[in-house]
Each structure stands twice: as structure tokens, then as C-alpha cells.
Design goal:
By secondary structure, this protein is an all-alpha fold. It has helices spanning 2-51, 55-59, 73-78, 84-112, 121-129, 138-147, 155-158, 165-177, 180-188, 193-204, 206-222, 225-230, 239-248, 250-260, 266-270, 274-297, 300-308.
């Protein structure tokens, strides 16, 4: 009995020690990840509270944790910027269309490069991959775009980004990681290449498709250099290009905002500062993609790990 009691006591002590170490580890983990989350979230919070605070206090750096003199006139004035609505439509259109086509081309080519009966499959695949390592430069790229008639053309945003070697590699590796028996069974049932692709491979490849979609969408939404190089007509300007242009001359933006503000709001309009303008436009541009991101985030780990690691 004494030995049994001693064994029970020892087990209880081990459990207590183990549970204490677990609790300590949990505390450390929660602390580290909370600090990490704070470091990630605080910059956005800081920008937002400065956009709704008194502009003069914000300009002097007096808003750090809590907004002071709350108002939303900065957003009301920002939406009066000439061409903002048109630019928003261009950004949304290029993001939706460009993302859809890039994802479709990536998964289709990735799937086709796994088909052993594709004529000269390895040569075509290497031809696509080699473009990752060699770039002619901006001037030859611009001359090519100009000769193709893609300057001052909405297709200039879409066509150059449709084929991405990196995404094709990801999707090819992902398709190769799926059971080949599925495609073989479909072949035996008389399904064609396109039937297998649309009815079988697309549903299976949802994780990698979602991963590529969010990466592509962020790239399209944040891009402004192609607008700078290709577009001279304001009807093709994107939100990001307007942000870039006005960040370079925020005094001009302040003058535009103050000129377009109504007479009843003249006092608030006159208080616009470079800081309030930069932060307000930044929130307007970043908010849409931040709202979409969480819906795709759960696919990242599975999509990237399976798409990037073979074996």
C-alpha cells in the first residue's frame, strides 16, 4: 500500500509540474504573439486615429494612443478629390479582372505542364521559367508595350501580368501532389482535357488558387508604376497612382481639397495638413484589400506548403 501511495503521489507531482510548465509556456506564447500582433496592428491603428483627430494636433505628433478632437471631415474632403471615383473603378476593375485571368492562366498552364502527352512539354515549361531570371529592362518593356498599343489602354494593366512563372510553378507542383489516379480514372471514363481541368482539377486546387488570388489581388491593387509609365490620360489613373502623385505634392492636394470644400465647411477645410492628407488617402487605399485578406488567409499555409514542396 505504501508503494502504491508513493507512486500515486509521484504521478500527482509530475502532473502538477507538467501542468505548471504548460501554463508558463502558454503565458510566454501568448505574451510573444500578443506583442507581435500589436506590432502588426498598431501602425494601421495609429494612421486611423490620426485621420479622425484634430489636424493641428496630429501634425505636431500629439496623437499616439487615443484620438483627440474627433471629426470625419478628412474623409468627407478626401472623397471630393477630382477623379477619385473614376480611379477607384479602374483599380477595382483591374484587380478583379487581372486576378481572375492570372489565376486561370496559372492553374491551366500548371495543369497542362503535368500532362505527359503535351507536345514538347519540358521545352515549353523551361521557356516559361527562364523568364523569371532574365529581364530586358524598363525601356525595352515600354517600347514593346507602345508597339502593341497598350499605352493609354486598360489592357495594359491586364495582359502583361496574365502569365506569372512563379504562380505557374506553384500550381504545377500542387497538381503533381494530387493523386494521379483521379485523372487516370477520368481519362478511362472518356473525359477530355478541359473536362478534367474544369470539373476535377479546379475544385481540388482551391487552396493554391486562393493563395495565388490574394497575392495577385494585392499586387494589382497596390501597383502604380505601370500607370506612371503607360498612362497619360486621367481616365486610366488608379487610386494608387493618385496616392503616389499627391504624396509627392501634398500641398497641391491640400489646395484642391480646400478649393472644393463647401462654404459651410471652410473652417475645417482650411485646417487640412500634409499629414492628414497622407494618412487619410492611405486608409482609403488600404482598407478594401485589408477587408478581403482575412477571407483568404486560411488557405495560405496549405496552399503554399503543398504548392512549394514536392515529395
Amino acid at each position: 500500500m505504501k508503494k502504491e501511495n508513493q507512486l500515486i503521489t509521484n504521478k500527482r507531482n509530475k502532473i502538477k509540474k507538467h501542468s505548471f510548465s504548460d501554463r508558463l509556456l502558454d503565458v510566454i506564447n501568448y505574451t510573444i504573439f500578443s506583442l507581435f500582433a500589436f506590432v502588426c496592428v498598431y501602425p494601421f491603428y495609429y494612421i486611423f486615429i490620426n485621420t479622425i483627430s484634430n489636424n493641428k494636433i496630429s501634425e505636431k505628433g500629439g496623437v499616439v494612443w487615443i484620438p483627440k478632437g474627433i471629426h470625419f471631415q478628412n474623409y468627407i474632403d478626401a472623397f471630393r478629390i477630382p477623379g477619385l471615383g473614376q480611379a477607384a473603378m479602374i483599380s477595382i476593375s483591374r484587380t478583379v479582372i487581372g486576378t481572375a485571368l492570372t489565376v486561370l492562366v496559372a492553374i491551366f498552364l500548371g495543369y497542362m505542364f503535368t500532362r505527359e502527352n503535351l507536345f514538347k512539354r519540358k521545352i515549353w515549361y523551361r521557356f516559361v521559367v527562364i523568364t523569371m531570371y532574365f529581364n530586358a529592362g524598363i525601356i525595352p518593356w515600354y517600347l514593346t508595350m507602345m508597339n502593341l498599343g497598350l499605352t493609354n489602354n486598360f489592357l495594359g494593366y491586364i495582359l502583361p501580368t496574365m502569365i506569372s512563372p512563379f504562380y505557374i510553378i506553384l500550381t504545377k507542383t500542387y497538381v503533381e501532389s494530387t493523386p494521379k489516379e483521379i485523372q487516370e480514372a477520368a481519362d478511362c471514363d472518356g473525359a477530355g482535357v478541359l473536362q478534367i481541368f474544369f470539373k476535377i482539377m479546379l475544385p481540388i486546387c482551391k487552396p493554391i488558387l486562393a493563395t495565388i488570388a490574394i497575392f495577385t489581388a494585392v499586387g494589382h491593387w497596390n501597383s502604380f508604376q505601370d500607370t506612371l509609365l503607360l498612362m497619360t490620360q486621367e481616365k486610366f489613373y488608379t487610386l494608387q497612382f493618385i496616392l503616389y502623385r499627391y504624396l509627392q505634392s501634398s500641398q497641391s492636394l491640400s489646395a484642391i481639397i480646400n478649393a472644393t470644400a463647401g462654404s459651410a465647411e471652410a473652417i475645417l477645410a482650411n485646417t487640412q495638413t500634409q499629414t492628414s492628407i497622407r494618412m487619410t488617402v492611405t486608409i482609403i487605399v488600404a482598407l478594401p484589400i485589408m477587408m478581403i485578406y482575412p477571407f483568404f488567409q486560411r488557405f495560405f499555409v496549405k496552399g503554399i506548403m503543398i504548392g512549394a514542396v514536392k515529395g
